[in-house]
Hints:
Layout: H1 2-5, E1 11-15, E2 22-26, H2 27-30, H3 33-48, H4 51-58, H5 65-70, H6 75-85
Antiparallel strand pairs: 1-2
GO molecular function: DNA binding
Keywords: DNA recombination
GO biological process, one term: DNA recombination
Amino acid sequence: QALREAGISRVVTIIDQKTRLEVQKPIWEVASSHMARRSFIGNIYKQVKDPNLVGALSGHKEGSKAFARYRTIDDDMKKELIGMLE
């Protein structure tokens, strides 16, 4: 509800759990504290790239399987790594 009250209403695409079809909804209808935590971890990991430091900030223990699922390596990170090798 905080997003709705703040006027944040961009539309996002989600997969409906029952039909498995894509559905568009305002973000305030689908956002959760878990989504915020996952986004925080993913975004900070792109900047810091030290899983131990990010894990310490998010409260995850070293080697946490949940934490490993949260941090993804996207194409921008791959390009940056290749650039470092050149």
